Amino acid sequence: MTERGFRIRGLGEIAIRCDDIERMTAFYGEVLGLERMEGNVAEGIVFFRIAEGFGGHTQVLALFDK
What we know:
Layout: E1 13-18, H1 21-31, E2 35-37, E3 45-52, E4 58-65
Parallel strand pairs: 1-4
Antiparallel strand pairs: 2-3, 3-4
């Protein structure tokens, strides 16, 4: 492995475009047990909290309906 001179400390957001957002929402919420984030979100977009991130920034999974 090559030394890069920097280190990744965390991810901020992972975004996935979905053909079937209801099935993907059920999978990430019910099967994997991720916490769904509530709030003012547009239709066809779902956010899940992955973990507390680096420096207090939450790591998020975003699902977008195609």
